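Hi F.,

I've been meaning to write this up properly since the lab meeting, where we talked about keeping a consistent format for the predictions we share between groups. The idea is simple: the sequence comes first, exactly as it goes in, then the structure tokens exactly as they come out, then a line or two of notes. No screenshots and no reformatting. I'm using this chain as the first example so we have something concrete to point to.
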Amino acid sequence: MKQLSATRQIVMTAMFAALTLLATFIIKIQTPTFGYIHLGDAFVLLSGFFLGPFLGGLAAGIGSALSDLLGGYAIWVPGTFVIKYFTAFVAAFVFGALTKKGTRKNFRVPGIVLSGVIGEIVMVAGYFFYNVIIIGATEGGFGAAGVGAAFSASLAEVPFNIVQGVVGIVLATILEPVFAKIGRSVSWSEA
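Output, unedited:
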């Protein structure tokens, strides 16, 4: 991504945070484990792809954390911010490494998919461990039995997070060329 002015960086970061919030908050599918699956991970990944690791991470973390806050999942806000920040950060870093200038056009879709998979692994692992901490702190304690119960309960969330990650990767792969085209027309992306 070519260097953006400070004003454009702020605007783009705010825009991707808002898109992440909306995609996470508006369409939710409740899971039996009291969580929810959403479309926001597509924008978490796109934030990283278009804004880079740091700003993309901020947009992803802020938008996702605001969704939890507004949706009544306040206990998840700090974990969500950190997890989504690093999901976007890692995906952006990998995408940048895979699509160096000159090879970017030829490797775009595989780069999106591979970097998305690695980023979403961060998300699944992050929520697994954060869930263990939350359950341990609120229900079972951190003794052997409490941690064992927390690990078991947290494993139940993993398949739902994997589905959410896969949907996010598919949508990001579909939407990336659209955002790249928009970016070229308003000159905020070298795409």
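Notes:
The helical segments are 6-25, 40-70, 77-98, 108-140, 144-155, 158-186.
Strands lie at 28-30, 36-38.

If this format works for you, I'll send the rest the same way.

G.
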